[in-house]
Amino acid sequence: MAEPVTFERASYLAPAKLNLFLHVVGRRADGYHLLQTVFRFLDFGDSLRITPRADGAIRLLNPLPGVSEDKDLCFRAASLLKARTGCRLGAEIGLDKRLPLGGGLGGGSSDAATVLLVLNRLWRLDLPRAELQALGLELGADVPVFVFGHSAFAEGVGEQLQAVALAPASYVVLVPPVHVSTPAIFGHPALTRNTPAVKMRVFSEGFGHNDLEPVVCALCPQVAEHLAWLRQFGEARMTGSGACVFAAFPDRATAERVFAARPEGMNGFVADGLDTHPLLGWAA
């Protein structure tokens, strides 16, 4: 086994994602929901510090409170990659968490994808992107798009991906003070599961809706309140299964002005859309 590659770069961005729309178009026999969505990355997210270890151990430098190793997506991603390749190297993983848990921004999935991409390079494994995407799908339905690395029209459970070109935009993202359980929302009897499927070519800015949004708003009034405030300034939607909501603006200055006008106690951030993942070039 070759010695691990070392880089001077101190940290790696695990960007947030937005679902610009999210339609539930059916349900498989195994219970998984069939979706259509467009993913967009943001220039805001978690940061990971990853260093190879020669002794084979996987170490989390700052484990998330209340999250065991077997549930931690960074640990699971590193362990899965190591097990599938037979790599004898290990890693130390430090996570600077900025994205909320249960926010619909893909934080844990993005963290896992960054671990896969970085360790694939640092451990000199050279797995192709498609193989890393398949590994990512074992960790969660949102992981593959972060490995794919482009804004994408997604189908299936979110793993069937086609790159899509999106106009530049800045986003106001609000973070309601609630944690939304994705399984609970997808399992709710009021969820619409028969939105007609569409072709990628019909997508344009402002297209569609989020089928999960009415259910979340009924269960979590704070989400509805944040949406109502943001809708004073334009089209606003929930991302993923919530709780975060967002609105797009044509430039950063406009987004910053809207964000500055938010009521006291309403938290969030402003970010620009990214066309590609910062680590796009780390897999072929």
> How many beta strands in the DSSP annotation?
10
Count of structural domains: 1
CATH topology type:
Ribosomal Protein S5, domain 2
Instruction: Tell me, rounded to a whole number, the average pLDDT.
Output: 93
Oligomeric category = single chain
Globular, elongated, flat, extended or rod-shaped: what is the shape?
globular
Strand content: 25-35%
Proportion of residues in helical segments: 25-40%
Order of helices and strands: EEEHEHHHEEEHHHEEHE
User: Which CATH class applies here?
Assistant: Alpha Beta
The CATH level-2 architecture is identified as 2-Layer Sandwich
Structural class: alpha+beta
Question: CA-to-CA gap between the ends?
Answer: 21 Å
- How many whole angstroms does the radius of gyration measure? 19 Å
Helical segment count:
8
The biggest sheet amounts to: 10 strands, mixed
Unreliable residue stretches: none
What does this entry look like structurally?
The chain is of the alpha+beta class and 284 residues long. The chain has a single domain (6-284), classed as Ribosomal Protein S5, domain 2 (2-Layer Sandwich). 27% of the residues lie in helices and 26% in strands. The chain is built from eight helices and ten strands. Strands 1, 2, 3, 4, 5, 6, 7, 8, 9 and 10 form a ten-stranded mixed beta sheet that branches. Helix 1 (73-85) packs parallel to helix 2 (107-122) and helix 2 crosses helix 3. The radius of gyration is 19 Å and the shape is globular. The two termini are 21 Å apart.
